[in-house]
Amino acid sequence: MLSTTDMEFGLRVSPRELPELMDGDCSYEDFRGCLSSLEQINRWLLGYRPTLAWLKPLPPGLSDPVYIVDVGCGGGDLLRQISAWARRRGIAVELTGIDLNPYAARAAAESTPKELGIAWVTGDALEYRPEKPVDIVVSSLMAHHLEDEGVVALLRWMEATAQVGWFINDLERSEWSCRLFGWVERTAGWHRFVRHDGPVSFRRAFREEDWVQFLTAADVPRNAVSVEHWRPGRLCVGRWK
């Protein structure tokens, strides 16, 4: 595992310079084990909370069902949480998860009850052309896997695709957050990919000034976007239209 004491957090490191194991060639078993640990992390460290809180004040007059697309869905845990959240509130939703890695759709389908009706798509989200208008686009722990130009392209796609709003839930580049991850990891027994990739992810993550630059480059009005710190270790960017 990469030591946090070797890191500096002033500038974001490119994913090309500091790769994650889960982004490389691996077996399905390792990929699925990594996703399982990531779901546990999201539960333990309240990773779903920012997205569900952002969804809570849904504006009136939305389509029925509300069509929500998750970009970089991984094992589908965020959409399962959104499905449960919507059921508790009597909100009809149509949910689609998109991921570039073909293992993701397989793992998501294996972990998701069929009765939830969530669709899993393998492919590049930026090339995804849904048959019906998308109300909301969400993303969780995906943006830090992209180069800077990829983050800008993602923002442009979200802005063009989401009719109602979009929300990016990702990590904050912070030594404190990285050290907290290390403390928890030592007792948690997470998959070896996660033990390696966790500190790497924080080094590739963002600060508020990064998002300001990305939003400017993507021609998204800064005053229309919220950039919020969520403890522990999250920095989230949202936009209601």
Question: Which structural traits does this protein have?
Answer:
seven-stranded mixed sheet, alpha/beta, Rossmann fold, disordered N terminus, 8 helices, 241 residues, 19% strand
Describe this entry's structure for a reader.
With 241 residues, the protein is of the alpha/beta class. It contains eight helices and seven strands, in the order ααβαβαββαβαααββ. It has a single domain (14-240), classed as Vaccinia Virus protein VP39 (Rossmann fold), CATH 3.40.50. The chain has a seven-stranded mixed beta sheet with strand order 3-2-1-4-5-7-6, sandwiched between helices. Strand 6 (226-230) and strand 7 (234-240) form a beta hairpin. It is globular and about 45 Å long. The model is unreliable at 1-6 (pLDDT under 50).
CATH topology name: Rossmann fold
**What is the CATH architecture assignment?**
3-Layer(aba) Sandwich
Q: Specify the overall morphology.
A: globular
How do the helices and strands follow one another from N- to C-terminus? HHEHEHEEHEHHHEE
CATH class: Alpha Beta
Quick check: average pLDDT?
Answer: 94
List the helices and strands and how they pair.
Blueprint: H1 28-44, H2 49-55, E1 66-71, H3 77-88, E2 93-99, H4 102-111, E3 119-122, E4 134-140, H5 148-161, E5 162-171, H6 175-188, H7 192-203, H8 208-217, E6 226-230, E7 234-240
Parallel strand pairs: 1-2, 1-4, 2-3, 4-5
Antiparallel strand pairs: 5-7, 6-7
